[in-house]
Amino acid sequence: MELTKEKGVDKVIIVGAKPGIVKKAIKTVKPGGIVPNVNYYGEGDVIPIFRLELGSGMARKAIIGGLTPGGRDQMERLIDLVIYKKTDSFIYYQFSF
């Protein structure tokens, strides 16, 4: 949020993280933003999503879940775009867990 002067980003992609990252992703995406989730949560009954991070339901933040169309090959290509900074506007921040 510091990097965007508290405005947030358009999209936060969740890949390979614990369920707690969902809260951080929703908090980081700006109103009207999208959180695509291609992570698999194989344990537990709850993925925490908090009311304030969603703007009390008024911020039009979308969470989209599902496997990546095209499977592993497509996902590896998308990751390469991030690694080699081939996207138009992208802020990359690595979280340590």
Short description:
The chain is an alpha/beta fold.
What descriptive keywords fit this protein?
22% helix, 3 strands, disordered C terminus, 97 residues, alpha/beta, three-stranded parallel beta sheet, 2 helices
Mean pLDDT: 76
- Per DSSP E runs of 2 or more residues, the count of β-strands stands at 3
Bulk shape: globular
Per DSSP, the total helix count is: 2
As a whole number of angstroms, the C-alpha radius of gyration is: 14 Å
- Regions with pLDDT < 50 over 5+ consecutive residues? 89-97
Please identify the structural class as seen in this structure: alpha/beta
Q: How far is the first residue's CA from the last residue's CA?
A: 19 Å
Q: Helix fraction?
A: 10-25%
Instruction: Write down the secondary-structure element order.
Output: EHEEH
Biggest sheet character: 3 strands, parallel
Percent strand equals: 15-25%
Widest β-sheet, arrangement of strands: 1-2-3
Task: Explain this structure.
The chain is of the alpha/beta class and 97 residues long. 22% of the residues lie in helices and 16% in strands. It has a 3-stranded parallel β-sheet with strand order 1-2-3. It is globular.
